[in-house]
């Protein structure tokens, strides 16, 4: 049950195709098939089944893929911990951030961190809330920047930063704003901001028209263009508010307090803690 076989199986689980897995790993299709066959023999249960020209995981394969991801993540975490312990300034750091955090708070932080610690091997994964917390749970990320961690994820909150969510709209839309009738511009399902907006409206039995856009930037631009109101972080719309392209709508029970969290695993690596100390030097961040 080698690391190479586990990586091959996870690639097959992700892509659903022997050919696609082989392309991802730069190996032959026969090598992928041989690796999965060897795992199947060792486990004594079928892991995949043919479906047309592709393959699909069996129930046993689906369960095993989750464990395989965690094993591979732990191996990477172990390498990072060892290298970081030897020299934190040269260790690897795997960051994961929700899209809004990546847009709002990471660019300046990463630039100043790279200037201070240029030899840290830094990677960044940006995705929706579910994806980044799954990465932390599977040991595929060393530090997550997002909202509050889910209760079912083993996590250590290392730092926090205030974050107010407000409803904004173009001035003419704001002038006629009503909770039930004014259209809302929203992120896609799975976004933390979308979940907050849905919960806010549901708690008030409001069902306004909704327009879904694919990114935080698109939501802000759509609101500024007059497409509707939007629930966003106040930090994300500072320039638009200053220029009066957007104004804060006087909606009930707002702003919402949704602080940013910097969250690591149970045993953060030395390089992770190096980044957290840098984070705490930035305005607004406090130790958890």
From TrEMBL:
Domain HTH lysR-type: 1-58
Gene3D superfamilies, sorted: Periplasmic binding protein-like II, Winged helix-like DNA-binding domain superfamily/Winged helix DNA-binding domain
A single GO molecular function term of this UniProt record: DNA binding
Keywords: DNA-binding, Transcription, Transcription regulation
Domain of life from the UniProt record: Bacteria
One Pfam family hit: HTH_1
InterPro entries: LysR_HTH_N (IPR000847), LysR_subst-bd (IPR005119), WH-like_DNA-bd_sf (IPR036388), WH_DNA-bd_sf (IPR036390)
Keyword Acetylation recorded: no
Family: Belongs to the LysR transcriptional regulatory family.
Protein name: DNA-binding transcriptional LysR family regulator
Source organism phylogeny: Bacteria, Bacillati, Actinomycetota, Actinomycetes, Streptosporangiales
């Amino acid at each position: 049950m080698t690391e190479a076989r586990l990586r091959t199986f996870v690639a097959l689980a992700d892509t659903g195709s022997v050919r696609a897995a082989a392309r991802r790993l730069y190996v032959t299709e026969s090598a992928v098939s041989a690796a999965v066959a060897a795992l199947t023999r060792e486990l004594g249960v079928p892991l995949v089944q043919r479906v047309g020209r592709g393959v699909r995981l069996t129930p046993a394969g689906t369960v095993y893929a989750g464990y395989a991801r965690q094993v591979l993540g732990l191996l990477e975490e172990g390498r990072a911990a060892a290298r970081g312990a030897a020299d934190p300034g040269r260790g690897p750091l795997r960051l994961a951030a929700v899209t809004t955090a990546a847009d709002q708070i990471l660019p300046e932080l990463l630039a100043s961190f790279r200037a201070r610690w240029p030899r840290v091997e830094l990677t960044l994964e940006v995705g929706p809330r579910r994806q980044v917390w799954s990465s932390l749970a599977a040991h595929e990320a060393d530090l997550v920047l997002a909202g509050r961690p889910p209760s079912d994820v083993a996590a250590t909150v290392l730092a926090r930063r205030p974050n107010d969510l407000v409803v904004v709209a173009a001035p003419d839309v704001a002038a006629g704003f009503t909770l039930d009738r004014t259209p809302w511009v929203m992120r896609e399902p799975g976004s933390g901001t979308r979940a907050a907006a849905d919960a806010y409206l549901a708690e008030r039995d409001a069902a306004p028209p909704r327009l879904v856009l694919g990114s935080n930037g698109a939501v802000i631009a759509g609101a500024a263009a007059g497409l509707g109101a939007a629930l966003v972080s106040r930090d994300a719309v500072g320039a638009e508010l200053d220029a009066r392209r957007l104004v804060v709508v006087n909606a009930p029970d707002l702003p919402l307090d949704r602080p940013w969290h910097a969250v690591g695993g149970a045993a953060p690596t030395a390089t992770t803690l190096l980044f957290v100390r840098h984070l705490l030097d930035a305005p607004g961040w406090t130790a958890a």
